[in-house]
Amino acid sequence: MIGPIEKDHRRFRQIVHGTIRRDLKRYVSKGELLGRSAGGTISIPVPQIDLPHFTFGSGDGGGVGRGEGGEGEGEDGGQGEAGEGEGHHILEVEVGLDELARILGEELELPDIRPRGESDIVSEHTRWSGIRRVGPESLRHFKRTYREALKRQIASGQWDPANPVVVPVREDRRYRSSQVKRRPESRAVIIHMMDVSGSMGTEQKEIVRIEAFWIDTWLRHQYKSIETVYIVHDAVAREVSQHDFYHLRESGGTKISSAYQLCLDTIRTRFGSGEWNIYPFHFSDGDNWSSKDTAACVELLRTSVLPQCNLFCYGQVRSAYGSGQFKRDLDQALPAEERLVTSAIADRDGILGSIRDFLGRGR
User: What's the first-to-final CA gap in the chain, in angstroms?
Assistant: First the structure.
């Protein structure tokens, strides 16, 4: 049975989830949740929830419609010096990233991903599911021990139904033991690539970081074993840490093929396509230094990168300095490629739609 406290807690969680779902677009577009994640949970401000509470008093202080004052009147019109009373506070609720991913999936109607690669990973069960004849007394299995004793007494004719006493001997004792099993577990790698050239402004880079956070949240909900690689590029690409990816500020020209080549080298050297589900995400404003380099990008994708990936996603962020030509070139050069998804992101309000474009296929 569920007690009153558990019912209240469940109802409170439902209210919290409803609030998050209703304001999901605001949380996403403003990037309020970045930097609030710690230890698998995230702190979410929910000022809309008013927690009920008791106020003790004599009840003689009047109420609505009582007293000599006219409607809307007060002693000083709401003005005066700072007081000592309690103010209004924003409630922050900790929500697991797994719960947050479920809310995102329900809101965007994202299908569960069908993994491609599997790899045997040795994992030790925390449950004591095995039985042995030897072991420490602290792990003795009471029921199994007395069952063995009962079987022995019945088989030997020592069992007396009129005096049903079961006396285990040393040979009857059974002990719990842990078992190590090999089980197949799908593994995935996310490769985030971002253009940090001069045409990508601070706002464009912030949009990329917000979307990357939510993509990570969903994919980590789908896979138990996942790794993430971060690549930034201008005219030259290089791998960076997560912190640098989220905080780097650079400038310079743009050569997108450098990022695609580094992505391919990373896949070949560290992530075999037979064992890994591979998800590269590239974000740019669509400016590339030449049509020759764009042709090189298309060739890399067609012949080398796409055959090894579950999905390759290109997100193009609108910029005052970017031409937006690269998305048009990809759509024209690879129109029937199922593993390639491109999305135009006009502003922060377009992040949720872009995530739906990328993850709505369940690949």
Answer: 40
Query: What is the pLDDT confidence band of residue 185, given thresholds at 50, 70 and 90?
Result: low
Q: 138-147, 188-197, 301-310 — which is least confidently predicted?
A: 138-147
Cα dihedral sign for 160, 164, 167, 172?
positive
Which residues sit opposite 183 in a β-bridge?
121
Max Cα distance, the chain (Å): 97
The shares of helix, strand and coil residues in the chain, as percent rounded to the nearest 5, are 40, 20, 40
- Give Cα separations from 188 to 60, 96, 220 (angstroms): 66, 21, 9
Examine the pLDDT at 25 and tell me if it is beyond 70: yes
Contact indicator for 218, 113 with CB cutoff of 8 Å: no
Element (H, E) at 211: helix 202-222
| Rounded Cα distance, 55 and 225, in Å | 50
Put simply, whether the predicted model's pTM sits higher than 0.85 gets the answer no
Amino acid letter for position 200? M
Q: What is the pLDDT of residue 122?
A: 47
Q: 61-83 burial string, b = 16+ CB within 10 Å, else e?
A: eeeeeeeeeeeeeeeeeeeeeee
Distance CA 99, CA 321 (A): 38
| Residue 50 region by backbone torsions, left for phi larger than 0, else alpha for psi between -120 and 50, else beta | beta
pLDDT of residue 90: 52
Question: What phi and psi, each to the nearest 5 degrees, are found at residue 202?
Answer: -60, -40
DSSP of 228-247: EEEEEESSSEEEE-HHHHHH
Alpha helices in 223-324 (DSSP H): 242-247, 256-270, 291-300
Residue pair 149/167 in contact (Cβ under 8 Å)? The answer is yes
Distance CA 337, CA 335 (A): 6
Half-sphere exposure of 330 (CA within 13 A, CB side): 29
Is the distance from CB of 246 to CB of 33 less than 8 angstroms?
no
